[in-house]
């Protein structure tokens, strides 16, 4: 049996919260963190006093502003969003559809910004949400530019299907990733919902490494994919240049 350290238990309390459980009672925290109620009470009190958790009038706990302040220091968080925002807004104005900015965390993609209009096609993504790399446009763009070991790790696992169109065959996924590297854009066709299509492109950091991806999600009915590709590429390139990236041809 693995003995959890004090740090492990503190992190387990924080890990009890997610998008489906944004507010929890003390009992729920103890259950989700697999802690004794007395231990959970002590740790929650410590985290609340520090500002990592806050308690509302009904007695429920939620993530506190102190964690948001720390998250703002992450180079792939607020700073990236600020650099990207003008280009995300331009892409939104050109399409009036869902525009996403996302980064990779392990085998998942995490959305750090989303712009959406009232008439945009419905999507299941939201800021802070996580999805598997293989099924989303931004995930494919990030996976295609990841290490060979990462790609084999994803292709070697069971690929979850969200619709009948989700790519779950490893060989087909490998071919898709090769196409993304060749064309500079990823297309996810009805892989998360059967009425939406995503076009995504990679965002590069100062050294040329892919650190994020930008996408637009449109209704699959009437989608003009080839018309969307240049717009998404321009947005991704603009963000990359703002972050300090320069194409190799520009330095010669």
Characterise this structure.
- The protein is an alpha+beta fold.
- Helix content is about 40%, strand content about 20%.
- It has a six-stranded antiparallel β-sheet, with helices on both faces. Strands 1-2 form a two-stranded antiparallel sheet.
- A hairpin with a 5-residue loop joins strand 7 and strand 8.
- Helix 6 (about 135-145) packs across helix 8 (about 170-185).
- It is globular.
- It starts with 5 loop residues before the first helix and ends in a 10-residue tail after the last helix.
Radius of gyration: 20 Å
> Which shape, going by the Cα principal axes?
globular
Distance between the termini: 59 Å
Which structural class should the secondary elements be placed in?
A: alpha+beta
Spell the H/E element sequence. Answer: HHHEEHHEEEHHHEEEH
Low-confidence stretches: none
What's the total number of strands? 8
Question: What is the strand content?
Answer: 15-25%
Describe the structure concisely for a colleague:
The chain has 252 residues and is of the alpha+beta class. 42% of the residues lie in helices and 19% in strands.
Features:
alpha+beta; 8 strands; two-stranded antiparallel sheet; six-stranded antiparallel beta sheet; 9 helices; single chain; 42% helix; 252 residues
Task: Describe the secondary structure blueprint for this structure.
Blueprint: H1 6-15, H2 26-33, H3 37-50, E1 53-55, E2 61-63, H4 65-71, H5 78-95, E3 98-105, E4 108-115, E5 130-132, H6 137-144, H7 148-155, H8 170-183, E6 186-189, E7 196-204, E8 210-219, H9 225-242
Antiparallel strand pairs: 1-2, 3-4, 3-8, 4-5, 6-7, 7-8
Helix pairs in contact: 1-2, 2-3, 5-9, 6-8
